[in-house]
Amino acid sequence: MGFPVRGYGVLLVLAIISAVGLAAYRAQKMGLNPEVIYSLAMVMIVSGVVGARLFFVIQYWHTFYVPGDWRATLGRVMQVTEGGIVVYGSLIGGAVAFLIFCHRKHLNALALADLIAPSMMIGMFFGRIGCFMNGCCYGGLCTLPIAVSFPQGAPPQFTPPYIRHMENGAFYGLLFTQDEKGDVRVANVLPDSPASESGKIEIGDTVNRVNGQDLQGQKNKPLEVLSNSLLHSWTINNEEGVAPGSIFLDITGKGIVDLHAGPLPKASLPVHPTQLYSSANGLILCLLMCAYYPFRKADGEVIAIALGLYSVTRFLLEVIRTDEYAIGGTGLTISQNVSVVIFILSVALFVYARLRKQPLAWPRAAA
After folding, report:
1. Measured between alpha carbons, how far is 140 from 323 in angstroms, rounded to an integer?
2. What's 245's DSSP letter?
3. 128 in a labelled binding site
4. What is the C-alpha separation between 162 and 164, in angstroms, rounded?
5. CA 3 to each of CA 6, 8, 16, 250: distance values in angstroms, whole numbers, following the listed order
6. Residue-wise pLDDT tens digits, 177-227
7. Would residue 240 count as lying in a domain?
């Protein structure tokens, strides 16, 4: 029996090697023993992966929790090579380990943070390519030439974009939303789709029931009831003697509208390759930080600029990503909320670094 080698895991390892290698090279150029970087890397890698995974598990706990079976739940949590980590989680976990390490080793934390800032970004460059291979962190529907369609995968392990399009009605040509009252409405009708061809569904229509399941008056999230019904319609309907991929929507003022998407498609609809956008973003930020480093005037500037720019670009990328929903009534995803906090902290750090008026710990430029 062969041992599976997963692209996501390979790219994650490559991200770690490239980040540590770059940091060690730069440290040597600054007269710092590379062994310090290797020791730091060990603790930051562990804490960063744990933080990244913990952030993801908390955010998507409902997909991991198996009621009454903690072993199965723990097994799902430990499947890191299947994908499912959050960059901000790794930053938080890595930052905690970094500060503890610097305190115990009596190192200048701001100077060392500036030194490794480009490494964080080059790690993201490779890591996001791994996300692309895994199918996570995907974008919204796209009609541009750069759009990509992710394969179905091996049922029941569908790729993430494929599952989302099964859940939100995209394969039927529909996208749903939920208003402040909890009513489920049609947010969009895609052209050349079963929904548009029916001529009966319009944007703004209120959906009361799907396949007989009531969506209104739900104490929990009505969209979850809708998603579960859409997700399983391909098999459940078939068991009931109805053609696979058929759903029946009870729409206010229009009664029952039936849609038939047919057998499962082989791939998701075309989406933005946001993973590759993020990868390119990481490479650009890495080069920018390397270029700016010799011109820094205070320790802490480089890491402050790196985090500030990343928080802005991440906030904007979240606009075209559809793998996260808005939380807490903010209208922003959890990553966008964290981006706002990180941006504020980065500005404060930059100002603090300049006001300290302390000489640079390592004035010699890194090659």
Report:
1. 8
2. T
3. yes
4. 5
5. 10, 15, 22, 49
6. 877 777 888 889 998 888 898 888 999 898 888 877 787 665 556 666 677
7. yes
Rounded to 10 deg, the angle between the 34-59 and 109-134 helix axes is 50
Q: Is residue 32 part of a domain?
A: no
- Please list, in sequence order, all residues whose beta carbon lies within 8 angstroms of the beta carbon of residue 96, skipping any fewer than 6 positions away: 47, 51
Q: Alpha helices of 30-181 — where are they, by DSSP H?
A: 34-59, 61-64, 70-77, 87-105, 109-134, 160-167
Place of tokens 């749903």: 176
| Vertex 127 angle, CA 147 and 88, to 5° | 100
pLDDT given for residue 3 in this prediction: 45
Q: How far apart are CA 314 and CA 292, in angstroms?
A: 21
Tokens matching residue 292: 């700016």
For residue 315, the model assigns a pLDDT of 95
* Number of domains, the chain: 1
Ramachandran bin of 83, using left for φ above 0, alpha for ψ from -120 to 50, beta for the remaining angles: left
CATH of the domain at 176: 2.30.42.10
Which pTM was predicted?
0.82
Among residues 350, 352, 363, 348, the alpha carbon closest in space to that of 295 is found at 363
The answer to whether residue 240 scores a pLDDT higher than 70 is no
Domain membership flag for residue 237: yes
* Cα–Cα distance, 92 to 88 (Å, whole number): 6
- Rounded to an integer, what distance in angstroms lies between the CA atom of residue 81 and that of residue 298? 39
As a whole number, mean pLDDT of residues 266-280 equals 94
Tell whether 68 is covered by a domain.
no
Residue 234: which domain range? Answer: 160-260
